[in-house]
Amino acid sequence: MPAAERIPTGRLSTTDVLATLSKGELTVRGRVREASNAVLYCTASHEGEEVHCVYKPIVGERPLWDFPDGTLAQREVAAYELSEATGWGLVPPTVLRDGPYGEGMVQLWIEADPEAALLALVEDEEPGDGWRAVGFADIGEGRTALLVHADDVRLRRLAVLDAVINNGDRKGGHLLPTADGTLYAIDHGVTFNVDDKLRTLLWGWAGEPLPAEATAALAALGAALSDSGALATRLAELLTAAEVAAVRERVAALLASGRHPEPSGDWPAVPWPPV
Q1: Whole-model pTM?
Q2: Has residue 104 got a pLDDT over 60?
């Protein structure tokens, strides 16, 4: 479904949501305490409409040794732009704008369905039907359990998107399935590095052939990322030239291999903690 036709909140279209997030008056309602960076829960009000959202001011970003300071908000927006270009709509509407504490990322708040199970720990050697194995995890007292994720087309699309944006931190808590069956993914600040940083819980398809829809989406991305493409122009406003070039290279590599990537061995394959 085209982006402008999806209804991510109430009766508002994505176009209306983006306008409200971009132009609306931001009012801070609280703070997400467990986040490593400053994450503020807000409302955005514009022309009689109001949406709930997350505001991450750049001044609240914790410095990282492998990413330039003050760039995480831009990477979050770039991840949204890539997601929209695939047509999969995996990232909530996200904008870069000024707010009460300066420039930052503002993203639509998503209410997850607590009953939707996408990850599990099982005390078996193999995943059951409908599940994919990630690996064994230490669960204490000398015991291990098999970490599995759902064999779900939405997660498989996300695994492809993460490979394109080089996501270094795909945790279970970043997966937000909703009651209507939509899957959203959040927290994309640690992305788009020029070095291989892919670290994820979604290794269940590693090495397997890409599905036809993924190949088609990647081919479309390749065209949109050409020097004259609108996506390339937009990404150039958010990332460095080297980072945009690396996106092109990753898309081309995925198309050339025709397979989901496998762990490189040069970087921890699974984030910690996994949730």
Answers
A1: 0.93
A2: yes
